[in-house]
Amino acid sequence: MQIAARHLDKTTIFDISGDIDLATSPVLRKALLHELRDQRIPRVVLNLAGVRYIDSSGVASLVEGLKASRDVGSRFILFGLNKTIREVLQLSKLVKIFEIYENEEQSVAP
Amino acid sequence: MLCVVRNALGELAAKLGFSEAECRAVVLAVDEALTNIIRHAYLGDHEQSIEASFRRIHLPGDGKSEDALEIVLEDSGATVNPEKMCGRALEDVKPGGLGLHFIRQSMDTVEFSRSSGRNQLRLVKILHGQTTQKGF
Q1: Which of A2, B7, B99, B124 is an S-S bond match for B109, by CB 3.0 to 4.6 Å?
Q2: pTM value?
Q3: Nearest by CB: B3 against A19, A59, A88
Q4: CATH code for B2-126?
């Protein structure tokens, strides 16, 4: 998994690619919690267009990010979900709890 | 190492004739099972061995048999209590506890047993398409 951060006005966008699994999800979790809990960024956006695979530990990291965002009053947004990621989120019945958009333009809109 | 298994298993499932969605389901189930073994049976030790076997089987049905992929994973880690293998209620929005749910949703049969100091997990996915390539 590769993860890169872009910082816009009051928004951090994480461009993520590769596989989010047992080995890599702790890196994602750490990055999300740092941005939300430590930096208190008002809006954190995850670009998942390059993600090939996500497992339950990856979903757990997303849920932790969502919970942290609720704790600090930030928005936590996902976009670029491919079929594989949508299937896994639907399987977990968690797809409805996330704020999900089709593209970056929608995700950073005021 | 898990990504190597995922790639190989995805190719195997496709060659057996599973649809793309079924291939993704099989890969997810096995990946989650291996993750659970590493985390719970081997307490996070990535260096321990897991034995995996994959074979095409014929399941007797009503009047006709069905082809299926049988996957057996064996480890010599800590005993796993099957009664505790219940996952969590999906209504609870919290991290963790989804792996077993994914496995059960993805496979037709999920059986756990322990004998001679080894845990065994047997997973079966029925092949509905029957577009199997020769050689398996």
Answers
A1: B124
A2: 0.86
A3: A19
A4: 3.30.565.10
